[in-house]
Design brief:
Elements: E1 2-7, H1 11-22, H2 24-31, E2 35-41, E3 55-56, H3 59-63, E4 68-73, H4 80-90, E5 94-97, H5 100-117, E6 121-122, H6 134-140, E7 146-152, H7 155-167, H8 171-180, H9 189-192, H10 195-209, H11 228-236, E8 239-250, E9 253-264, E10 276-283, E11 287-294, H12 298-314, E12 341-345, H13 349-355, E13 362-363, E14 369-372, H14 378-384, E15 390-396
Parallel strand pairs: 1-2, 1-4, 2-3, 4-5, 5-6, 9-15
Antiparallel strand pairs: 7-8, 7-10, 8-9, 10-11, 12-14, 12-15, 13-14
This protein binds L-homoserine.
Length: about 400
Amino acid sequence: MIKFAILGYGVVGSGVAEVMAEQREKIASVVGDAVELKSILVRHGYPGDPFADKMVTDFSLIENDPEISVVAEVIGGVGAAYEYSKRALLAGKSVVSSNKELVATHGAELNEIARRKNVNYLFEGSVGGGIPLLRPLCQCLAANRVDEVFGILNGTTNYILTAMDTEGQDFSEALQKAQELGYAEADPTADVEGIDACRKTAILADLAFGRNMDASAIPTRGITKITSADLELARALDHTIKLLGHAIRTEDGCCAFVEPHLIPLSHLLASVSGVMNACVVRGSAVGEVMFYGPGAGKRPTASAVAADIIDAAQHQAYRKDTDLGAPGGVLAPEAALISRWYVRAEAEPDEVRAVFPEAVPIYGSSGECGFLTEPLDRPALEAKLPALDARAHYRVLH
Ligand code: HSE
């Protein structure tokens, strides 16, 4: 019998306990051995909970338990989660995690410890929630040089933008609903300011390009400035607005950034609504593939974490390596990247055309106009904007 522990009993932790118990028989047949939950690390008791008898408050009971060979870290953050992951690996246990902040910040170091100890460090649930994404990227697309990865990587912001766009909800109402549904981070600033998507973009870039990126250096812009006027004008221009994480291979590294993009309504990403995430990978042999599914929430994320527990249980003798790359990934400046841009401005058509001769401004109910520019890099765009009363500008997906 293989025994595992769960660190943390929040939305995801309780989902992992549930899913592993529900599929106990199927999992035993896949692994060829029973996989049983032995302990759950909690800060306080949960009287009456079906797993109450497994709860412990002292991590060393798990660390020093020779029966526990797999530990699922779903605490979040980089404090206790980092310390316990490291101690569990050093104690010779495999660790699986859905903690994108930890994987983006310390994942390479933790993976190196796992290598030394010949155990697994797996983190499928850290990007895209329940979508099978990291394994396909690393395994099924292993014969490709990956040139570009981009997608909707945060369920909370996609839920908010969808509710604002299709139901006319305001930003705070939609955010509150996303929090109630268990999608948002403990501090939703990480969602709405794009920080969560930035961490996921860094993990994808590490895996895709083989060099470890400093997530904090990735230019990141969130959704807090997007207004209903932007969504209305985008639609009139046959686009919608989505927060995308984007990483592009360059000669000596990659160019990565997170920001709202205008997406043509004809693009598959435009129809990704609510908590759904989707990620496009462009590979040298396969071309473009898109992965789609629920990007947050209890059971979808638990599905990915449980799959990692099963994989770790199956790979006790031969570890699986998900390589986060050597340190020192070079981040090319995003400013040099040429795109078309959406601009919202309070301006007459003649004023717009004096600055952007090819633009066709469209007017919305606020009286402001929206238009798409010719292809430009960001500095060239920003040099032109002061000549107009421009209120917002967002990149248009190629
Ligand atoms: N807060 C995250 C999201 C949770 O909304 O996508 C899943 O990583």
